[in-house]
Design a protein that fits this description.
mainly alpha; 100 residues
């Protein structure tokens, strides 16, 4: 009976050690999970900021493209005005008209 009690006590000690080791592993895993959760939250915030910056950049690009288009139209209009205002190049005068 005493030997059986000793075996039971030894088994209980072994189980206790195993449980303590398991608790230690689980605490370590919880710590790693907490760190990973914080990193995910930080990445989520950073991603949100990057998306906002991208949206602003895309909006600026659209505005710039519109301005460029308007400037190109103005340049085209100004070139047309300059062509209309400048005297036409001298046309060739026939040789027989110059010898009068």
């Amino acid at each position: 009976m005493e030997e059986r009690m000793r075996n039971v006590e030894q088994n209980l000690r072994n189980v206790k050690l195993l449980l303590q080791e398991k608790v230690s592993q689980l605490k370590d895993q919880l710590h790693r999970n907490t760190k990973a959760d914080e990193m995910i939250k930080d990445l989520y915030v950073e991603n949100s900021q990057l998306l906002k910056a991208l949206e602003m950049t895309e909006n600026r690009q659209k505005v710039t493209e519109k301005k460029n288009y308007l400037l190109e139209e103005k340049i085209s209009s100004l070139n047309k005005i300059v062509r209309d205002l400048s005297p036409s190049p001298l046309t060739a005068v026939p040789y027989h008209l110059t010898r009068s």
